[in-house]
Each structure stands twice: as structure tokens, then as C-alpha cells.
Amino acid sequence: MNKKNLPVFFIASSLVISPLFAANIVPKFPFASSKKSSANLKENSGFKIEKSANDYIDFSGTWVGKCDDSDEPVTVVIKNNDDIFTWDGDQFKIGSLETRSNANEENTSFSHTLLEWNSNHSRLLFTSSFFNYHHTQEGKGKDFGYNYGFIILKDNQLRMKFDFHSSEGNFTSICTYDKQ
């Protein structure tokens, strides 16, 4: 799976997950399992934050970078305001739980995704749960799990950290992007 699409998968969780993804889980976004861990995620990332004059972080722009599990640089386009977040054309309402599903001849999937600001609007938090059923000529398989993470700005860089927990395995991904 193209590493550029991994953050989109997590954010949107509406992309069709191929058997390749099930076999090679790659990082990008969140789901807090308890109020305590959610509060820690919201306030204790260890990064100093930069806020825009709009009282929320503006991640808008074209960003080029990579994740710690890949040497391939990728380009992403982000647009956001206080209420809407768009990642490479996929738009989400911040603070609204979204349910998406998709079915075709090779894959059936659904997901629940929530994007929300932390208490001072300095980081955007992601939470997602998903289920995928792959039914191809090569075989059948199921993958389910949850993800959580955040996006912040630090030193004029876009930084993301995501924890993935699925029936195929667990991993963490940290990504850093520079604005173009």
C-alpha cells in the first residue's frame, strides 16, 4: 500500500484496505481506550506547540515528509479551520463521529472516526475503529482494530504520531513533514 495513503486510511478509515495492508500494517492515526489515556494523549505529547492567530492550529498547506518506517518522501495537501479538516481531498467535520463503509468485489469495510481538538486547540486528535473483510481470488481474511494519535506543529514542521492496534498486529508511527 502506498505510504501516502496510510494517514488517509486512519483519518478517513474509509479507504479500502487491501490484503497488502493486512499483511504489512503501516502507521498513521488514533482511538483512546479510556478517559485517562485520552486525557494524557490530549495534553502530554512532549512537544512545544505553536498556535495561529485564529486560536487553533492551522495545518493548511502542502507538506512533504516521511514516517519513521519509510524512506520514501510523500506529499500531502491539508486544509483546515476550527471545524473542518481536509487531507488530500478527504474532508472531515471536527468533533463529529463519522461512520463510513465501502464494499466492492474484493473488500467490505466500515469504520467509525472522530477528529477533535485538545482543550486549547493546539493539537488535532484522531480516534478510529474499523473492520475489513477481504474476499479475493487469493483468499479471504478479516482485519479489525482501533487507532489513535495526534497532529501538531513544532519548529515549523507538521508532526504526527499514531498507534495502531489490529488483529494483524500493533505498531506506532511517527511522521515529520516540512511545508512547501
Automatic annotation (TrEMBL):
Keywords: Signal. Residues 1-22 form the signal peptide. This is DUF1579 domain-containing protein. It comes from Legionella beliardensis.
